[in-house]
Specification:
296 residues, mainly beta, 8-stranded mixed beta sheet, 6-stranded mixed beta sheet, 19 strands, 9% helix, 38% strand, elongated
Length: 296
C-alpha cells in the first residue's frame, strides 16, 4: 500500500497595500489617519498548502530617520505583541511608524523565520496646512451689522463662538496677502492652493483669477489655483467674500473664509497746528472717530 502526499517547503509571501490617502516620494511614504493598511498573503507554488494566518504589529518610533532611510528601517526592531490580521487597520498617531508583518502556512512554514520579517516605515500626517492671510492698511474690524448681501454669515463676525468669522472694512488700496504652507512635524507638502471670490453675493472667481490674483482658473470646479504667496486688492466697492483653501497631498484640508466691506480709497486730511476749515464732504472709513484718528 502506498500513500502519496505533497511536501510544501515554501513559506507564504505577504504584501502590504495602502487604500485611501497615500503619497510616496521615491521610497519615502506618507499616509493619513484615514488610510486603510491592507495585508494580503499567498502560499506560492509548487504544492502550496495555503495560508493559515497573517500577523502584524505597529511601533511608533522616535527616530524619524527610519522613515527617510530604507536601510535603517530594515534594521529596526519593533516592540510589543503581534496581532492576528483580520482586516484593514488604520494608524491614527502622527509619527514615524514601523509596521512589521508575516504569514504562516498550513504546514507551519513561518515566513518570518525563513525569509525574515517584512518591514515598512511610513509617516502618518494628520495636520492640514497653515493658511496665512495678512490684511494691510487701511483697515478696521467690521461687525457686519449693516451687511446687505451676507446677513446670516455676518451675524458671526467676531462673535467668539465656534462659527466666528473675521470681517473687515477695507478700501480699494488695501493690500491683502495670502499664502499656504504645510507644517511639521511630518509634512507631506505638495499642497494645492486655491481661492474663490464673491462680490455682492455673486461668484466672481473667474473674473479675479487672471487679474489681480494671477492664478489659473479651473472651469470644471470654479476654483482659482495659485502658485504661491499672492498679493491683491479688491476691484469694487461694496461687500466681498474671500474663501481660501489649502490641501496637502493626503487630503488634509484647511479653509479660511472672511467677509470684507470695501469702501473706496482713503481720504487723507492734513491737520496742522491751526485747524483747517473743511467744507469738502466725505465718508469716513469707520463711524468710530477714535478708530479713524488712531494713526494720528
Amino acid at each position: 500500500q502506498f500513500n502519496c502526499f505533497f511536501v510544501d517547503k515554501t513559506p507564504p509571501e505577504t504584501e502590504k497595500e495602502y487604500v485611501g490617502p497615500f503619497f510616496s516620494d521615491d521610497w519615502v511614504e506618507w499616509i493619513s489617519n484615514k488610510t486603510n493598511v491592507t495585508l494580503s498573503a499567498e502560499d506560492p507554488e509548487p504544492h502550496p498548502s495555503g495560508v493559515n494566518a497573517t500577523y502584524w504589529r505597529n511601533t511608533l518610533v522616535e527616530d524619524d530617520r527610519l522613515c527617510w532611510d530604507r536601510e535603517l528601517c530594515q534594521g529596526a526592531q519593533g516592540s510589543g505583541n503581534f496581532n492576528l490580521y483580520t482586516g484593514p487597520f488604520q494608524k491614527r498617531e502622527e509619527s514615524c511608524h514601523l509596521i512589521e508583518f508575516y504569514s504562516i502556512d498550513n504546514v507551519g512554514k513561518n515566513e518570518s523565520e525563513i525569509n525574515g520579517l517584512n518591514k515598512q516605515c511610513v509617516f502618518v500626517d494628520t495636520r492640514a496646512p497653515n493658511i496665512t492671510k495678512i490684511i494691510g492698511d487701511p483697515k478696521s474690524e467690521w461687525n457686519g451689522s449693516d451687511s446687505q448681501f451676507y446677513p446670516e454669515e455676518t451675524e458671526h463676525c467676531w462673535d467668539g463662538t465656534g462659527n466666528e468669522i473675521e470681517c473687515w472694512k477695507v478700501t480699494l488700496q488695501t493690500l491683502i496677502t495670502i499664502s499656504c504652507e504645510d507644517v511639521g512635524p511630518h509634512p507631506v507638502d505638495h499642497e494645492g492652493f486655491w481661492v474663490t471670490v464673491d462680490f455682492d453675493g455673486d461668484d466672481v472667481t473667474e473674473d479675479y483669477c487672471d487679474w489681480p490674483l494671477g492664478g489659473n482658473f479651473d472651469e470644471e470646479t470654479g476654483k482659482c489655483f495659485l502658485d504661491g504667496e499672492t498679493e491683491f486688492r479688491f476691484k469694487e466697492t461694496s461687500e466681498h467674500n474671500l474663501k481660501v483653501y489649502c490641501e496637502d497631498a493626503l487630503g488634509n484640508l484647511a479653509v479660511d473664509e472672511e467677509k470684507f466691506k470695501v469702501e473706496g480709497v482713503p481720504f487723507r486730511i492734513n491737520i496742522f497746528k491751526k485747524w483747517n476749515l473743511i467744507s469738502v464732504p466725505f465718508v469716513l472709513l469707520d463711524n468710530n472717530i477714535e478708530e479713524v484718528l488712531e494713526s494720528i
